[in-house]
């Protein structure tokens, strides 16, 4: 089966490497996003998919936009049987989709139709889901709206962060994609339409998604800390500047928490706590004030000069 592989981040690499090692698949080209300058020195950074393709000597194409006539001609000349697409980062126009007889086959990191969009792993954790999975689907002109092929399901562990879950799901992707392509080639796979009424969205993360609302219960704040790691993380105001926080839900004696306003800081037995909504508490495990390094709660307390009633999220 002649394939073009489209992808950009590390999540796509295990599937690329698996397909490149299987004799029944021939990767004719790897399409990935253009190299970008990054960091203070603006050094050119290659995408993880490009690095993997270079290591295997695969042909690489990096269009700034796939909607151009040049990109169309590239795919037309290569004439793949199918295109595998995983977190590529661009919307594919209909005329490109129509070029591959077996379609463009996407590995999406959710149990569709839930969490359509750019950040399904982050939002599944942030919303407190306990299960998620992978879906292979034949893309259409919509946003993750095409017919489903196979699904793989897994538990979201109670303390699992987005990078940890992403690594587990990326490792499960190659088997699911290889099985999908084989059965498509054999003509034995029957696509299933999505129930669009059950769809939820997982939009691209924005910096403001990381802002903590202390009126939320501690469990919700903790889920967002896990889901939005490493970026945008979870942050709040403190003494006129921003600080990122890491922590988890915990309980304190009722006498120690009496009368606390949301966001109010209390120190109990040397541990740092913040009051959250629904009379819940978050035990703070690390703090990073703007422009400074990440420190322990004890280091924070030694320099913060807390006054009674001080709170996160305040002025």
Please describe what this structure looks like.
The protein has 315 residues and is α/β, with parallel strands linked by helices. The protein folds into two domains: 2-198, Formyl transferase, N-terminal domain (Rossmann fold), CATH 3.40.50; 207-304, Roll (Methionyl-tRNA Fmet Formyltransferase, Chain A, domain 2). Helices cover 27% and strands 25% of the residues. The chain has nine helices and 14 strands. The protein has helices at residues 13-21, 48-55, 69-78, 94-97, 120-126, 162-186, 218-227, 254-257, 297-304, and strands at 2-7, 26-31, 36-38, 43-45, 60-61, 82-86, 104-108, 131-138, 148-155, 235-238, 241-250, 265-268, 271-276, 280-289. Helix 1 links the parallel strand 1 (2-7) and strand 2. The longest helix is centred in the middle third of the chain and has 25 residues, at 162-186. It starts with a strand and ends in an 11-residue tail after the last helix.
What are the SSEs and their pairings?
Elements (H helix, E strand, L loop, with lengths): L1 E6 L5 H9 L4 E6 L4 E3 L4 E3 L2 H8 L4 E2 L7 H10 L3 E5 L7 H4 L6 E5 L11 H7 L4 E8 L9 E8 L6 H25 L31 H10 L7 E4 L2 E10 L3 H4 L7 E4 L2 E6 L3 E10 L7 H8 L11
Parallel strand pairs: 1-2, 1-6, 2-5, 6-7
Antiparallel strand pairs: 3-4, 7-8, 8-9, 10-11, 11-14, 12-13, 13-14
Helix pairs in contact: 1-6, 5-7
Strand tally: 14
- What is the alpha-carbon Rg in Å? 23 Å
CATH architecture of the largest domain: 3-Layer(aba) Sandwich
* Low-pLDDT runs: none
Query: What's the rounded overall pLDDT mean?
Result: 96
Number of domains: 2
What can be said about the biggest beta sheet? 7 strands, mixed
Structural class: alpha/beta
- The CATH topology label of the largest domain is Rossmann fold
Task: Estimate percent helicity.
Answer: 25-40%
Through-space gap between termini = 61 Å
Q: How would you name the CATH homologous superfamily of the largest domain?
A: Formyl transferase, N-terminal domain
Question: What strand order characterises the main sheet?
Answer: 5-2-1-6-7-8-9
